[in-house]
Amino acid sequence: MSQWSQVQQLEIKFLEQVDQFYDDNFPMEIRHLLAQWIESQDWEAASNNEAMATILLQNLLIQVDEQLDRVSQEKNLLLIHNLKRIRKLLQGKYHGNPMHIAVIISNCLREERRILAAASMPVQGPLEKSLQNSVVSERQRNVEHKVSAIKNSAQMTDQDVKYLEDLQEEFDFRYKTIQSLEQSDKNSILIKQEMLALQAMLNTLDYKRKEVLSKIGRVIHEIDVLMSNMLTEELLDWKRRQQIACIGGPLHGGLDQLQNCFTLLAESLFQVRRQLEKLDELLTRLTYDGDPIPVQRPQLLEKVNFLLYNLFRNSFVVERQPCMPTHPQRPMVLKTLIQFTVKLRLLIKLPELNYQIRVKATIDKNVSTVSNRRFILCGTHMKAMNMDESANGSLSVEFRHLQPKEMKSSAGSKGNEGPHMVTEELHSISFETQVCLYGLTINLETSSLPVVMISNVSQLPNAWASIIWYNLSTNDPQNLSFFNNPPAAPLSQLLEVLSWQFSSYVGRGLNSEQLNMLAEKLTGQQVSYNDYQLSWAKFCKEHLPGKSFTFWVWLEAILDLIKKHILPLWIDGYVMGFVSKEKERILLKDKTPGTFLLRFSESNLGGITFTWVDQLENGDVTFHSVEPYNKGRLSALPFADILRDYKVIMADNVPENPLKYLYPDIPKDKAFGKHYSCQPNEVSKPSDGGGKGYVPSVFIPVSKILNDSTDPHSPSDLLPMSPSVYAVLREHLSPTVIETAV
């Protein structure tokens, strides 16, 4: 079943998450129509290879054309229209930057895998539950409702101001008419009656002025309360969700809704500002004793300007945190002299601001870091915000060609810093701009979440551990001295984040049993998730007992092993992986002989082994584990082929494959058959081997187990022996000779 077919079978709450990341950058129609083709391409590799990305983009457009031909024959007018629009959009948007669509599609596929993994987990973790709190959702709805009500109130006040203006114009006309009469005429009874009517009209004007000022004051107060409470909380929640998403958590949404709220509030405030300007204009034409406008208007205008300043300052956000395109799953880790991307958005979307706001990027502005290392940004560090580059038309700017460069410091300062010190240093990318609109000049500043600067890719694992720990432990966006005294983290939340590393990076998260094993490895004991606090040193600095590496280095090596060598097996759920030697014996002891399971090595970095259960002649149960396979050996022979071809030579020299059933009882070929690279070669004569007369050969793994062996963990040796060669040897050589050769 394709990944997209699995996605379509999800519950509605997960489908809503999927819906959030499909837009005009990569329309869902294309994902649906070209599901199998899209999933068969290597978009991640193309995201770092322009030539490959160019070919994939061309092939994507060809696939769209083929779909267009098909739906044209079916005379599906709506789909024809949409596909033509999408094709034009894709070609225009990515023709000059094909790697960008490769990044987008790769991210979408990875996010689908994360959601599928989350859906397969029996329960949500504490972090994810907090992000999907029903109270938060209710507040979002309340904010949108109040913003809409405020907008309506401001528009209704516009009508009151217009009525006031019409009333004053009538009063002004009638008053000037009387003033133009001769003195003798002014003493007539009719004129005296008109003067009384004008006095009544002036009283009405006074009442209406006070009423309009009161309504304007209420609108301003409602905006103030909304901005100070619910809208601020919504923005802080979005920033927290962004932090969690950066370390593998659920995709954060809601920025478009926030943009709508910010924009409507800004429009309402500018509308109120125009109303106050209109009142000032009316004041210049008519004033009187006790006139409320000169008393109240300055205070109201000052409050409106104050709210606009705050609204604009809060609306300037980092939409996408700094990230190297070469490592999309490791944001906020930046390597010197390597380009990174970062995207900013102004949540107040007004047409008057398009291409009028220039944003400047700097690093470590007005902050002191914990080391002597200093950096500058090379490349295009000033760009204009616009509404044309974003698919949803937001007012944004994306820096794509920034490079951090380390400045030379005083001699010897750098040599005092160990590898952990470098990866625990936090730096800040800052952005500043100025908005000039309707007579207002507002200076805006914002900063990225703290980033870690590395000079060598070998520092990336520890740097990423720092990013995880920071964003898990604090919602402070600028605590650059965090690692001077890093706090402990709740074990329950840390385990949830570790599962996210697997779901986001290799497409399948960890179940409760796997997390239990990691918890025991971190703490050295069985503990309650809810109560235990784990130190930063235990996670990333102290070596595991009896080992020469830390927990995080061990886990990161496993992630790398899965990604590069056993990804399909992991996604299918056939790798138990995190299970101790003691636990595996408990699981296997009552199983049919030949039952095996796959687990990651606890003593070798990036190693995977398999253990199977066997039964001796006296009925005793025995276990055998092979020496772990590392990336070097797996580069030579796919792991699925190893499981298929693995042979054991017992004391009687009869080779056999002892692996029959994957735990608990899945026939081996049923589990791994679709992952075999080819079928085993049949016995071939030398003349069948091609132009040079060689017998075709493949590597097969062979182990030797002696009956009197006291070591249950006999290592396997990977020998260059094909099934066909072995068959020929059996035909012409005695078992003794074969044993000697092995």
Task: Kindly describe this structure.
The structure is a single chain. With 742 residues, the chain is of the alpha+beta class. It has four domains: 3-120, Transcription Factor, Stat-4, CATH 1.10.532.10; 137-313, Glutathione S-transferase Yfyf (Class Pi), Chain A, domain 2, CATH 1.20.1050.20; 324-408 and 421-454, Immunoglobulin-like, CATH 2.60.40; 512-675, SH2 domain (SHC Adaptor Protein, 2-Layer Sandwich), CATH 3.30.505. Helix content is 51%, strand content 14%. It contains 26 helices and 21 strands. The strands form six sheets. The chain has a five-stranded mixed beta sheet with strand order 15-14-13-18-19. The radius of gyration is 35 Å and the shape is elongated. It starts with a helix and ends with a helix. Mean pLDDT is 83; it is low at 410-418, 681-691, 708-726 and 732-742.
Give the structure's gist in a few sentences.
With 742 residues, the chain is of the alpha+beta class.
Radius of gyration: 35 Å
Structural class: alpha+beta
Based on CA inertia axes, which overall geometry fits? elongated
**DSSP strand tally:** 21
Distance linking N and C termini:
42 Å
Which spans of ≥5 residues are poorly predicted at pLDDT below 50?
A: 410-418, 681-691, 708-726, 732-742
CATH architecture of the largest domain: Up-down Bundle
Kindly provide the name of the CATH class of the largest domain: Mainly Alpha
What is the mean predicted local confidence, pLDDT? 83
- The CATH topology annotation of the largest domain reads as Glutathione S-transferase Yfyf (Class Pi), Chain A, domain 2
Which homologous superfamily in CATH is the superfamily of the largest domain?
STAT transcription factor, all-alpha domain
GO biological process, one term: cell surface receptor signaling pathway via JAK-STAT
InterPro entries: p53-like_TF_DNA-bd_sf (IPR008967), SH2 (IPR000980), SH2_dom_sf (IPR036860), STAT (IPR001217), STAT4_CC (IPR046991), STAT4_DBD (IPR029839), STAT4_SH2 (IPR035856), STAT_linker (IPR048988)
Keywords: Acetylation, Activator, ADP-ribosylation, Coiled coil, Cytoplasm, DNA-binding, Isopeptide bond, Methylation, Nucleus, Phosphoprotein, SH2 domain, Transcription, Transcription regulation, Ubl conjugation
Protein name: Signal transducer and activator of transcription
